[in-house]
Amino acid sequence: MKQSKLFSRTKKEVPKDIDAISHKLLYRGDFIDQLGSGIYGFLPLGWMVHQKITKIIREEMFSIGAQEVFLPSLHPKNIWQTSGRWDSMRPPLFKIKDSHKKEFALGSTHEEVMAKIAKSRIISYKDLPFALFQFQTKFRNELRYTGGLLRTREFVMKDLYSFHSTEEDFKEYYEIVAKIYFKIFKRCGLLVKRVKASGEGFTASFTDEFQALTKIGEDTIIYCPKCDFAQNKEIANQKEGDKCPQCGAVLKQEKGIEVGNIFPLGTKYSEPFNLYFVDKKGEKNLVIMASYGIGIGRLLATIVETHNDAKGIVWPEEVAPYSVHLLAINMGEKMIVAEAEKIYKDLQNQGIEVLYDDRQDVSAGEKLIESDLLGIPTRIIISKKTLESDSVEIKKRNEEKVKLEKISQLKNYTSLII
């Protein structure tokens, strides 16, 4: 992509009511656009990151045998009445009426819909287990919406639902998902802790949250630095400074952002929807369910919260909108333009995603400042000075060192940056 054609306009200042680092940087870099309170759109650069994250999650969902679906966001009232959550859901549902005065909810989650779908497709134990997931827009009627993408009223979620015939089978798959969540977050550049938390109205039992420790987080985590003990403060019986109940080490306390969760639902939704299967003995049993969520926008914002410096965003390689930011300095020089165009095409031919700053009316200083703000992993500069030695200047966004490389070496770019 040539930057002169990119639909983007960076900003130097941010509104006074923007506090979160991720919100500031995503706003300044023009990754997102705010339509209303808690309502955001993704612009080209932001949507590219969003899609990179989605790609990672989809690959890992397929790796554990889950199948992808796409379900409605508009839910008839009776679906939510069946589960008893039409009036008790927190935050409250967004409710609307159609032209026939029939009531609907904008889906904030899909347990009810999934149970309804499964009911007509499960007969015997031979139909179990299975797992379905989707990337779908959720609507949350939040009382407060803060931190930009960290808490919104409309967002895309990956929600996975699994269905089982036995408790043992459920527990086995639950742990498989937990392990794959760690892999997903690692690929996104995040180190997370698996934290015990309350059921939040989704289930009567405790749930598991995946928390990225950061000062901006809304949750408070009590955790052990030596073992895997970690609890949300809302359910913790211990406090910072106490001994870990598992290994005896001194417990710590930090803020965290919840980037994912997994819920053991049991038969909470199977019962009201009469979701049964016939076992080997010919007896009817309720299907055991579980749900597993990841909010894509919140994950994206959390990556920014934990990957930035004074100059801007520092995207991890696998989620960055582009791999390379190619900057041509002094576009008035025909030789520079010709060589930059050649490098641009060579990199594209190698399958490298390149943002080429070909703008003629922007100074070298402005180009460098914007490049740091956007946070693309590798920057390549071609200028009159570098051409004197048939070279380009290469700098990794997360490193201070700059090195000169011969232009001829760019023909094998992948081996060059490893």
Provide an overview of this structure.
The chain is α+β, with helices and mostly antiparallel strands and 418 residues long. The chain folds into two domains: 21-309, BirA Bifunctional Protein, domain 2; 322-417, Anticodon-binding domain (Rossmann fold), CATH 3.40.50. Helices cover 27% and strands 29% of the residues. It is built from ten helices and 23 strands. It has helices spanning 21-28, 44-63, 77-83, 111-119, 167-187, 296-306, 334-349, 364-374, 384-387, 413-417, and strands at residues 32-36, 39-42, 67-68, 74-76, 94-97, 103-106, 130-139, 154-164, 193-197, 207-213, 219-223, 230-232, 252-266, 276-278, 284-286, 288-295, 308-309, 312-313, 324-328, 354-357, 378-382, 391-396, 402-406. Strands 3, 7, 8, 9, 10, 11, 12, 13 and 16 form a nine-stranded mixed sheet that branches. Strands 20-19-21-22-23 form a five-stranded mixed sheet, sandwiched between helices. Helix 1 packs across helix 6, helix 2 runs antiparallel to helix 5 (167-187) and helix 2 (44-63) packs across helix 6. It starts with 20 loop residues before the first helix and ends with a helix.
Short structural summary:
By secondary structure, the protein is α+β, with helices and mostly antiparallel strands. Helices cover 27% and strands 29% of the residues.
